[in-house]
């Protein structure tokens, strides 16, 4: 009895204020230091801890080395901190780390090899940051990664080879970003991703999106949306944002001809919506404001004063082929030249 009391005393002395020790559902020793005001790993935590929870703390940097004393570390949760960047490492500093949670931090950019310090990651959570660019090599070395959550960031471009280092990927969250185009053969390294979340992106339904359209046709049942913990299969959640006449339509509901006829109207190279060449398009497009060249005869272009009136209604009524072409050309030209306030309620045709 005395010994028991003594042990209790020792444990209480060692316990770190703000943290409490328990076990996770798989009985791993865990320290829960939620909302305890820490900006670094406190001293005194048991080095056999496998799960370290620091959500809602004040970490303003992520030092891989500061977790090195936990030599069997399995999970680190830094959700809702102020981490602005992650630092690539030449060596695997945390070779046992499997789950890393960095949601709701201040990340804006993930350099090549961002997670090389922890090559055994199976789950990586990066939702609700401000990540606006990724590279082909951001996730290199993560050959065990199964879950990657990039929900609610500001990603505009999917690097062509981004998935190549991820042969084990099973769940990929990309909802609520600013993605317009999926590179051709983006999934070529691992065709089937069983849980794929692509909704709430401004998909640009031009010819460049034909790869995604075909992919959705093949893997329709793998496309999901989630609402809290509930998920449901919903391939129709991937909808066009532009051009106007496809806005709101599920990408899957379109045919190749729908996508490709749009793009020939919109841009000389068929990739008007590809955000990667804005400079070229800005300089070349205004030089040829009216690019309609295909067969149906075109009625005389309206004068500029009629344009603003027509633009309010043109998308809500049935228009003839030639009207489409005339307006498309005018809108495209005016968006790029900035010389006409078209007020089309649709900013997405501008490449910014
Ligand atoms: C950690 O502790 C907080 C209270 O301090 C609690 O709300 C939270 O559910 C705990 N986390 C886990 C995963 O048990
Ligand atoms: C990714 O790699 C491809 C193919 O090598 C290259 O064309 C592309 O520019 C790279 N993208 C980025 C964002 O680095």
UniProtKB/TrEMBL annotation:
<dbReference type="Pfam" id="PF13855">
    <property type="entry name" value="LRR_8"/>
</dbReference>
<feature type="region of interest" description="Disordered">
    <location>
        <begin position="257"/>
        <end position="303"/>
    </location>
</feature>
<keyword id="KW-0677">Repeat</keyword>
<dbReference type="InterPro" id="IPR001611">
    <property type="entry name" value="Leu-rich_rpt"/>
</dbReference>
<feature type="domain" description="LRRCT">
    <location>
        <begin position="201"/>
        <end position="261"/>
    </location>
</feature>
<dbReference type="InterPro" id="IPR003591">
    <property type="entry name" value="Leu-rich_rpt_typical-subtyp"/>
</dbReference>
<dbReference type="InterPro" id="IPR000483">
    <property type="entry name" value="Cys-rich_flank_reg_C"/>
</dbReference>
<feature type="signal peptide">
    <location>
        <begin position="1"/>
        <end position="15"/>
    </location>
</feature>
<keyword id="KW-0732">Signal</keyword>
<keyword id="KW-0433">Leucine-rich repeat</keyword>
<protein>
    <submittedName>
        <fullName>Platelet glycoprotein Ib alpha chain-like</fullName>
    </submittedName>
</protein>
<feature type="compositionally biased region" description="Low complexity">
    <location>
        <begin position="278"/>
        <end position="296"/>
    </location>
</feature>
<dbReference type="InterPro" id="IPR032675">
    <property type="entry name" value="LRR_dom_sf"/>
</dbReference>
